[in-house]
Amino acid sequence: MISVNDFKTGLTVEVDGDIYTVLDFQHVKPGKGAAFVRSKLKNLRNGNTVEKTFRAGETIGRAMIENRDVQYLYSSGQEHVFMDNETYDQFSLPEEQLEWELKFLKENMGVKIVSYQGEILGINLPNSVELAVVETEPGIKGNTATGATKNAKVETGLNVQVPLFINEGDVLLIDTREGKYISRA
User: Is-contact 154 102, C-beta < 8 A?
Assistant: First the structure.
């Protein structure tokens, strides 16, 4: 058990049978009445974000999340197969559970699997990945006065806004949290 007074960003807790990670919190001490903690929590099972208010000093369950290194192997229809790097066990996750992550996953890529008491909640990607550009229109010389961008499609199918000097075949560093171009790799 953990007190809501000890909330930290990134802490995982169990509230009403669901697993949440703390995105944001604020201790509020009104002039009249009891103090409370206003929090923004992300449900790790379905990805929904909720705002919850707790009385100051209230205790809730702490969820011990396990992170293991795994390797993405391949896609098999609607299932995506991963291999545990320690035990070499293979397991698959449904496409619905990996909607955002599939935009960055390449075969043989290393990621971390997030699980709680044996239940797989999802995967954690590295903060940035290297992806090759497979389709983009050529940049027009003289169009760079205002930092113009163009659309580029990378090898995983993700469309990214990139500077005009990027060409097909270039390898880019892409931020996996926002899906944005960082730089050339």
Answer: no
Task: Using DSSP bridges, classify how beta strands 79-84 and 49-55 pair: parallel, antiparallel or unpaired.
Answer: unpaired
In angstroms, the CA 91 to CA 108 distance is 14
Q: What is the pTM of this model?
A: 0.73
C-alpha 95 chain-centroid distance: 15
- Look at 139 and 4; give whichever has higher pLDDT: 4
Q: What is the pLDDT of residues 33-90, one digit of tens each?
A: 899 999 999 888 887 889 999 998 899 989 888 889 999 999 888 899 999 999 999 9
Q: Taking a C-beta distance cutoff of 8 angstroms, is the pair 40, 48 a contact?
A: no
Q: 56: buried, middle or exposed (CB in 10 Å: 19+, 13-18, 0-12)?
A: middle
Q: What angle do CA 24, 27, 28 make, to 5 degrees?
A: 125
